Amino acid sequence: MTCPNPSSATQPGTGATPVAIADGVHWIGALDPMLRRFDLILRTANGTTYNAYAVRGSSGVAVVDTVKAEFADTFFARLEQVARYEEIRVIVLNHLEPDHSGALPELMRRAPQAKLVISTRAPAMLKALLKADGQEIRYETVDTGDEIDLGDRRLRFLHTPYLHWPDTQCTYLLEQQVLFSGDVFGCHHCDPRLFNDRVGDFRFAFEYYYAHIMRPFKTHVREALALIEPLPLAVIAPTHGPILRERPRRYVARYRALSGADASLEPVPADAEPLRTLLVFYLSAYGSTARMAEAIAAGAEAVPGIRVSLYDLEGGETGPFVDLIEAADAIALGSPTINGDAVKPLWDLLSSLTVVSLRGKVGAAFGSYGWSGEAVGMIEDRLRGLKLRVPVAGLRLKLIPTDGELDDCRDFGRALAQAVTGAGAAGSEAGDTAAKPVIDFADLA
Ligand code: FEO
């Protein structure tokens, strides 16, 4: 059962009642069942939840995260059922994005004695987020291993930056073995039954969330897992979606699998020299850009140490191409210029690449054109915007390639491959735009 309108008081997450998730620990978050798009880019077929928690110790209460501002009333209604404001000693924000910090200013007005605890990367963001509120915010920063003592309970902090903002951290309740994980292990899936062993199948939401939120930060995911995996885990309490109390380690293991550095399926002999990989993608209206692509691939393949793959973008799905690009060392993108632009499937591919890390990869652009030929330069600009290196100047030619121009394409492929393998001078960034002249017959007229 999903949660189009959680009106039943028989469900644990409805009726503004707090929900116990461990001894002395309550969920005090909010349900947002009707949300259909999060942060403009994520589709949320089942809405989402903004999970916040209260931890009661013998010497005071800690609140871990808050909720989106529009849901503050529900949050405070739940909080007031498990603690008085004067009992709150600590407010922990694992992540400052407004869906978790929205109720913070009002919480600090109601519990002015409470100490705000954030990660070492968070202060600048905190000030930027709350400057319009005008409230003076006092805070303390914590790093991995720092602890806060609540008497018979202790909160220990794990510095886990870039999951998915620079400020993010996790908080571990030692005595109950509860990991308050922030967005890590979360998903946009609203179900008032709250717990992973009670809600419906949310695998799609979990995988979708990882793919769009965590995947670009795989290196940081692996660093965070190195801190999380040694912990005894009874419950993982993320800021979105189901609370993971049944076999929580399965979700940790899934993150480990998804964040693997190499998704290649091909068996590689143990004694084989590692190959660098170049993917050549193209779209072609009359076959000219396709012939350029083939010649570029042939030229690149002549360079030792590189494996070249060639794909017609028109015939493929974007998702698998994104997977390939994530694992590749270099991409070359070919498009004709139509109405002063590269063609839409190429832009669709480029816009899909925001979910993977491209920093340090090599990019290049090429294409045939009939009149003005802007596409190549526009693709190069976009590649640089995505943090790829563009060490070989783009190659464009007018209409149908001659044999001599196809030789130029092979030279272009060779220079590109050398830039990837480090075998030639073209690997220098200094060659960004000036390594090779544009071939334009119109200039010769
Ligand atoms: Fe759920 Fe990154 O905020």
TrEMBL record:
Cofactor(s) the protein requires to work: FMN
Keyword Ribonucleoprotein: no
PROSITE patterns for this protein: FLAVODOXIN, FLAVODOXIN_LIKE
Pfam families: Flavodoxin_1, ODP
Alphabetical keyword list: Flavoprotein, FMN
Family classification: In the N-terminal section; belongs to the zinc metallo-hydrolase group 3 family.
Name this polypeptide is given: MBL fold metallo-hydrolase
Originating organism: Thiohalocapsa halophila
Lineage: Bacteria, Pseudomonadati, Pseudomonadota, Gammaproteobacteria, Chromatiales
